[in-house]
C-alpha cells in the first residue's frame, strides 16, 4: 500500500475508524434550503462511498441565539433528529461514519440577538453582542448537551464542538473577548470553565460510547489570544472532561492572516498540532491546506498528528480516498484552494460548490447520465471550458476529439500556475491530462482544425478562449509596454520601476509576481505574516517586521473606489494586504494618457503626473476569441460556444468549467 499510515485504522476503544481521514466541517447552504436534506444526503453519501473515515457536518446551532444568521440551521429537538436521519442513514449505508458539528456563533452572529462572553463587537461583526448572564450561560451549556443527545438519537456517531475560529466558546477562552469579573472570566482557569462544562454535560448526556470531537484553537492569530502553555492546559483538561478527539483550529475569522487560501503553503500549520502531540494521549487531528495523499501521509508518518482533516479536497473529488487507496492518485481532482465557488459562495448566502468540480453539492441535479446515443463530438480549444466539457462528454459515452492550436493543454491555467501562490493550478492541468488519456479522448495539439474536418462531427464545441485586449493608449507600441500574457510566459527582466495598468485579478496577480521575494519557503512565509512558530506571544503573533521592497511598483485602475475587490470575498483582502506589505502603490480613478521614453503619463485627482517607470505591463482585460462561429453557421454545423469564447469579462475558470459540464450533461 502506497499510504500505509493514511489507511491504518484508528481504534477509539468503543468504535474504530477505518482510516485516518476526517472530512472537515463545511457549510454548504443546503442545510437551510428547500429539499436541502435530500441533496445533502447525496453529497455526504458520495464522500462516504468515496472512502472517508469520518465526516463532520457543517455547523448547526444548539439554540436560536447561537445561529449565525436568523435563518441558519439549528439542531435542538427530536424533530430535528428525525429530519437528520436521512443524512446519517446515507453515510452509514455507504460504509462511513458521521459527526454533527455544534456551533454557537457568539458575537459573529449576524442578528441583533447575538450573545457573547462580553459585550465587545467583532471587527467583522454587524451587531454588538449582549454579555451573557449566568442563567444564559447555564442554559447554553444545557443546550449543547441536549443537542448532542438528539444527535445520538439521529444516529450520528458523534459530535464536534466548535471551540475555535473565534466563535462563542473561543470568545470565552481569550482575554481579547472575555473581560468578565465573575467565575466565567478573569483568570485563564475561569475563562476555560465554559468549554469544560459543555464537554462534561455532553458526556453525561450521551454516555461513553459516543465520539466527542473538540475543535481547539491552537493558534488564534489575533492579539490577546492564547499562548501555547494555555492551549496545552485546556487540551489536557478537555481530555479529562471526556473529549475523544482533538481537532486543530487555526486562526479566528477576524484574523488578518491567510490560513486556507491557495497562497498558503501546503500543510502550513501541521507544526502547530505537532507541538501538542506529546501533551495529551487522545488522537489529534491536523488541518489546513492538506490536499494530496502524499502530504497527508507525510504528516502521519512523521508523527505530526494522528489524523488529517481535509474539507475542500472532498468538494473537488469525492473519490479522493478510494483513488489514493487504489494507487490512482493521478486521477484525483485536486483542490487548488481558490475559495471561489465554496467559501465565496457561502459568504454570499449561495450554495457552495467547487470551481474544479461543479457537481459538488449538485449531485442530484448536475448528473452525467450514460447516453443511449452514439455521438462524435469535436471540441475546439483545450482550456478549462473545453477540457471540462470533453471529459464530461466522454464520461457519458460519447466519442470526443479535442483540437488545440498551442503545444499544450490548459489555456489560461498555464499562465495562472506561474503566479506565486497559484502553483496549485498545475494540478488541474495534470488531472485533465490524465483524464484525457484515461478516457481515450483523441487530442491534437499544435493543430488548426479545418472546416471540412469539423463537418464529420455530430456536434462541435467552440472553447477557443480569450486574448489580451489591445490597449487604447498613445505609445502602446513603445518598448516599455508589455502585455500580461507575454510577461507571464517569457518573464523578461524588468527595471526597478514598473507600472501595472489594470487592477483586476490579472493585474493583482502580475503585481504579486513582480514583487515576490526570492527563495520563499514555509518559514519565510510564516515570517512574512508575523507568525510566531514558538507561540510564545499571545495568539502566536510576533511584532511585525519592516518589509524592504526590491522594486517600486504602481498598480492602477480606471474606476474609483477600493483596489482589490475584483478577486473573491475571502481572498481579495489577502492579495491587497500582500501588496500593501510589499509597498506597492495602489491608485484608483486613474486616466492613462501616454507612454514615451520618459515613462507613463497619467491623470490622477485631476493632476497630470509622470511615472518615470522602466516598464508598463498592460492588464487591461481580454476579449473573446471566436473566429469560427460565422463559418460554422454558414456550413450548417451544430455548434455551441462556451468559456471565454462565449464571454471574456473577468477571467472566470469557475464559469468556464461549469459551462463545460452543464453543456455535456444536456447534449
UniProtKB/TrEMBL annotation:
Q: Which GO terms describe its biological process?
A: fatty acid beta-oxidation, unsaturated, even number, reductase/isomerase pathway
Q: Does the keyword Iron-sulfur apply?
A: yes
Q: Which PANTHER family does its entry note? A: 2,4-DIENOYL-COA REDUCTASE, 2,4-DIENOYL-COA REDUCTASE [(2E)-ENOYL-COA-PRODUCING]
Q: Which InterPro entries match?
A: Aldolase_TIM (IPR013785), FAD/NAD-bd_sf (IPR036188), FAD/NAD-binding_dom (IPR023753), NADH:flavin_oxidoreductase (IPR051793), OxRdtase_FMN_N (IPR001155)
Q: Which GO terms describe its molecular function?
A: 2,4-dienoyl-CoA reductase (NADPH) activity; FMN binding; iron-sulfur cluster binding; metal ion binding
| Species the sequence originates in | Aliivibrio fischeri (strain ATCC 700601 / ES114) (Vibrio fischeri)
Recite the UniProt keywords alphabetically.
Flavoprotein, FMN, Iron, Iron-sulfur, Metal-binding, Oxidoreductase
Record EC number = 1.3.1.34
Task: Using the record's annotation, list all stretches that form the NADH:flavin oxidoreductase/NADH oxidase N-terminal domain.
Answer: 6-328
Needed co-factor(s)? [4Fe-4S] cluster; FMN
Is Flavoprotein among the key words of this record?
yes
In Swiss-Prot or TrEMBL terms, this protein is called 2,4-dienoyl-CoA reductase, NADH and FMN-linked
Group of enzyme by EC: oxidoreductase
